[in-house]
Amino acid sequence: MKTFLFLPLLSALLMLSAQAQHVLKPMPAKQWFSNYQVYLKQAATVNNSADSHYQLGQWAWSNGLEDEAWEQWILALRIDPDHVATRKSTGFSRENSGDRWARAGEINPDWIRALEIDNRALSLNITIEDDADADFLSEYQWRLRRLNWFIWQITEGQIYIKDIHIQDKTQGSPDSSIHRIVIPKGQLNIPVMKGGGALCKNSGRPNWQVISGGRCYVRILAHEICHGLFGVPDERHGCYCLMQGGLYGIKTQDLVLCDDHSHRPAPSTPDSCWAIILKRYPGIKHPNTEKFGRVPETKFTVLDN
Ligand SMILES: [Zn+2]
Ligand SMILES: [Zn+2]
Description:
Layout (H helix, E strand, L loop, with lengths): L1 H20 L7 H17 L4 H13 L3 H14 L4 H6 L2 E3 L6 E3 L5 H9 L3 E8 L5 H21 L5 E8 L11 E5 L14 E4 L7 E4 L5 H13 L42 H8 L18 E5 L2
Parallel strand pairs: 3-4, 3-5, 4-8, 5-7
Antiparallel strand pairs: 1-2, 6-7
The structure holds zinc ion (2 copies).
């Protein structure tokens, strides 16, 4: 009985560190799906107040629903950009006790300059074929901000997304060497559960391109971008790795790629993901022992046609 008393404190601590490091609570897929159904019902009836959206976000996060938690936190911040609890959950605190909200840690300007020189500060063009409204575009930018944080964590501070150009109502087939993410017609608001996932074409080639639903989970986007940038294959042989895919981080709670210590070789995937990356990018290290600091936030330009 004694341990019971410690559980709330322990789980609160676990959740704090979880959100800072994007670690999801592991759970069986069946339980995840049932949580998702509960979430849909709650999201349909939640009060439109910052507190209520925040509370539902907390519930979603602690039940393995990462992107759903963010959906609610973003709604809370839309109502009250200074909602302190939501800021905390999304990893922000007041910078130097001032007015600006920033994520933890300091940017290392020398390190960032070195990445830029080595072409590891990415510029992405994103094409939306449908007409996207302001609400969609603001929520979508939050997904892409998170994508930048995820890529930074996955690459141990060695690649980030410097800027993103988004354009909607585009016509004609987008050139895959320029348009890195495409949301095709009719896919703008399709949830992942209804087919709004993503795939990567031309994996590892200069003209890689991710085809995605507009509400695709950020972990899936990060997985597809790793296909594109590094040419790492899907893995189905039990590596603890983002590239094994599976359900939205349920199998891989951390944002990590397998290395020669953790990789389980199979005929279709003889090499670990890190071994493939190190071969392709001689400037990248694993583990990266440099003090790389916080990732700069992505700059957006949006052409809302
Ligand atoms: Zn792997
Ligand atoms: Zn592996």
